[in-house]
């Protein structure tokens, strides 16, 4: 096969001299770290077990931001997981059955939410765009302390339960502790008495499911599902954390510092509020002014 003749690029550029795949990747693929900035105004449910209430209260009262730098390798892992996650949600007929997976569905043609329920198989009732242009739209809930998105609702034997879809690169023998807390928090805080929104179906919150999809596919265990039954003991520290954050935002009350921070003399590289936290601790300050 002959290549099409072109006069462009007869002179070799620096990139054309690169033979090392890693070096070439650095020049071709956008591999720079990604900077993420978050306000301290609300806690994300997906991070609740790792969040320090004192850090968030101080950050909120001082109107600070949490800045994180996500390296390219971690970005790639997150993006691959998100892509698989979205594929699963938008093809429920493959993974759960057409009538078992419920949620909100949005038309990309007119950007309107079509309905809550199973995946539509008819054209959009608003703009007549093809049903193929309808995508899953995760249910967002928000309380004064936390916010989160539910992956969907599963109809399991006539009971509507909350699953949490996870992607992994290894075979899972038992669910991760952080994942259990995250699912339990979704089940607890998405209740109408906290977020005010009532879903069209009654949710059985006694049982949820952690569903792990293996990104490194193997025929023995491509998917594993674990039944999770939250307990009061599991939720007590999470609820206490959100209560402390809510009081801090409203009344300026500082939660006590974590014992590990005191032991380490507040030398915590991962905490942006470590210096202020230490300052207020040694000054024995228990409150800060609440922003107007």
Q: Would you kindly provide a written description of the structure presented here, covering whatever features stand out?
A:
This protein has 9 helices and 12 strands. The strands form 3 sheets. Strands 4, 5, 6, 9, 10, 11 and 12 form a 7-stranded mixed β-sheet that branches. Strands 2-8-7 form a 3-stranded mixed β-sheet, with no helix packed on it. It has a two-stranded antiparallel ribbon with strand order 1-3. The protein has one domain: Alpha-Beta Complex (Lambda Exonuclease, Chain A). It has helices at residues 21-28, 53-61, 72-90, 92-95, 177-189, 192-195, 232-251, 259-263, 274-282, and strands at 34-39, 43-44, 65-70, 101-107, 113-117, 134-137, 139-142, 146-150, 153-156, 159-168, 203-214, 223-228. The radius of gyration is 24 Å and the shape is globular. The chain is of the alpha+beta class and 292 residues long.
């Amino acid at each position: 096969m002959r290549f099409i003749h072109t006069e462009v690029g007869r002179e070799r550029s620096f990139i054309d001299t690169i033979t090392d795949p890693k070096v070439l990747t650095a020049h071709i693929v956008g591999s720079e770290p990604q900077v993420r900035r978050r306000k301290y105004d609300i806690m994300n449910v997906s991070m609740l077990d790792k969040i320090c209430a004192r850090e968030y209260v101080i950050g909120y009262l001082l109107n600070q931001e949490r800045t994180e730098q996500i390296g390219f390798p971690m970005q790639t892992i997150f993006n691959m997981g998100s892509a698989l996650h979205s594929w699963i949600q938008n093809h429920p007929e493959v993974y759960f059955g057409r009538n078992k997976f419920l949620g909100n569905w949005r038309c990309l043609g007119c950007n309107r939410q079509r309905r809550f329920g199973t995946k539509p198989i008819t054209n959009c009732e608003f703009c007549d765009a093809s049903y193929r242009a309808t995508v899953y739209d995760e249910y967002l809930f928000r309380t004064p302390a936390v916010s989160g998105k539910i992956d969907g609702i599963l109809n399991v034997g006539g009971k509507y339960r909350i699953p949490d879809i996870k992607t992994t690169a290894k075979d899972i023998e038992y669910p991760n502790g952080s994942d259990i807390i995250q699912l339990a928090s979704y089940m607890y805080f998405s209740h109408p008495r906290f977020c005010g929104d009532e879903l069209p179906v009654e949710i059985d919150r006694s049982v949820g499911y952690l569903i792990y999809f293996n990104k490194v596919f193997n025929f023995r265990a491509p998917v594993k599902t674990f039944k999770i039954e939250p307990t009061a003991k599991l939720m007590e520290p999470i609820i206490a954390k959100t209560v402390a954050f809510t009081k801090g935002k409203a009344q300026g009350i500082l939660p006590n510092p974590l014992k590990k921070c005191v032991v380490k003399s507040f030398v915590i590289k991962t905490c942006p509020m470590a210096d202020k936290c230490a300052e207020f601790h040694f000054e024995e300050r228990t409150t800060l002014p609440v922003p107007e």
